[in-house]
Amino acid sequence: MKTVTTSSKAVVTSQQLEKSPEHTGSFYKEFRRPIVKILEDLSQPIPQRFIKYKVIKGNRIAFVRWTDLARLMDYFAPGYEWMTTSNFDGTQVCVHGELKIHAAEGIFTRSAVGDEYSSVESYGSSFTNAEAQAFRRACGRWGLGLHLWR
Q1: Which of 59, 84, 112, 144 might form a disulfide with 138, Cβ 3.0–4.6 angstroms?
Q2: Rounded to whole angstroms, how far apart are CA atoms 4 and 29?
Q3: What is the sign, positive or negative, of the torsion defined by CA atoms of 122, 6, 30, 107?
Q4: Per-residue pLDDT, 8
């Protein structure tokens, strides 16, 4: 069994500020905000322009690309951290991810898992698909995009 660990710290760039979800006087939220305020923002419905649709087994499914979720996290929880550990058993990839938010009161963590068979025939590799799935689920644990799961 192979284990791979990756880590990244999100940094708000000037390009992301120009494309912020809401232009309400400031281009981005303040760093180190109270956790209650961050949770309030993350629990709001995601703006419609970020929601995409795909058909799976005849069902129309709403989803948000992981890249758009990362932009929303940059906006609402600047400086967040995403750390992963990957395991491969020969047939399936499992990615465990931890999404850390830096708030005024300290650092808070929620985690999630994504998995994918190595014989995936869809777009992307089994590793990238499993990590994207884990990231979307971790964002959901923070409240981001929960309205899409019914």
Answers
A1: 112
A2: 33
A3: positive
A4: 46
